[in-house]
Write a structure and sequence with these properties.
With 250 residues, the chain is an alpha+beta fold. Helix content is 56%, strand content 12%.
Amino acid sequence: MKNKGFHPSFLQLIYLILFIFLFVLIISTPEFIIGSVRISEELIVQEEAMKGLVLGILFMVSILILNLYKLEVAKHKDQIEKINTDKQKVEERLQISDQYIGTINVQLKEIKNVFFSIDNYPQTKADFKRTFTFFGEKVLNIVNSNWVLIRIVNSGTQRTISEHYKARSRSINKYPQISNKLMIDAQAIDSHTSIISNPKDIDILVFCVLPLETISSDEQIFLQAIIDEITKMYIIFNSSYFKNNAGANI
């Protein structure tokens, strides 16, 4: 492993030079001061006192320089911590952005599979059941939910025409009791999210229920598109297959 070594900063070099300079002055001061110093006729500073005064001044200057150095070091540390904090925030935002982009790419792939994987409209009841199952699996691929319930209801009689329940895990066996009347009246269900088909001028209602309090706006758009697609396929299937069967339900 390569040893990077120690590289002193500019501030450390300045402090080291000043420290050496003061140290030399303190050591050499007794050699420069010889004899008493006459300040005035009445005031004469003895040699020892003068040496002590100069050494004291140099000592105070060294302490002052040390404190200034500590202040600058603390300021640099604060700046470095701020830079590291800002860097961490930027990295976290980039990570969140990458995760979001990855999630969107997966969802777009699933949406593409939803609208381009079905080559033919269902012709039989078994075909429609398989299509129903296909859409249920795609909903769970788009939304992180434990289960999904998709149901087609007669708006007039409020009776269930057909439904599909899909759980992510086999350990989730509790079937949700969802009222058709609540969905027809567009009433909210506690701790659940419901998506209802857009066409209101037809005699059927298709809705999707998830055990989630909220979902993202993107997931809302995707699920709405799936529910509307199921509605369209049911209308096409019912009009073609049951044309000669008095509109019998699935």
